Amino acid sequence: QVQLVESGGGLVQAGGSLRLSCAASGRIRSYYDMGWFRQVQGKEREFVAAIDRNGDIANYADYVKGRFTISRDNAKNTVYLQMNSLKPEDTAEYYCAAGFYLQTGDRSSTQHYAYWGQGTQVTVSS
Fold it and tell me: What is the pLDDT of residues 43-88, one digit of tens each?
């Protein structure tokens, strides 16, 4: 069982930066793919970024590519999302997710993930 807790959200002006953290209660090590998704009220949850179990492969949605960076520190059981050049359209609740134990698959799909955090709000003002 893995429990995830996000932190680092807040209010920032357009062009600014934030770093989100996702702390896992269990050992994520190289067992779980990890992802970040976001959701605006009334809309579907959408993929932002993901990283494979070993931290070798990162995937990004086109709308954040070049601005966001996902990373993981397996020794600290923590995943990060560095967000630069933020835009008002990045405003959303951001969720961290952990995949199924040792399973590979489409890391951009919500179906790939077994565990979800409670979310952290990011608001970007214009």
Answer: 999 999 999 998 999 999 999 999 999 999 988 999 999 999 999 9
Q: Are 86 and 15 in contact (CB under 8 A)?
A: yes
Q: Is 37 in contact with 94 (CB distance < 8 Å)?
A: yes
State how far the Cα of 117 lies from the Cα of 29, in Å rounded to an integer.
17
* Cα gap 52→30, rounded to integer Å: 8
Q: Which two tokens stand for residue 115?
A: 């565990």
Bridge-based pairing state of the strands 120-125 and 10-13: parallel
Structure tokens given for 42: 């009334």
- Report which of 67, 54, 70 is spatially closest to residue 108, judged by C-alpha positions: 70
* Listed residue (92, 110, 91) closest to 100, CA to CA: 110
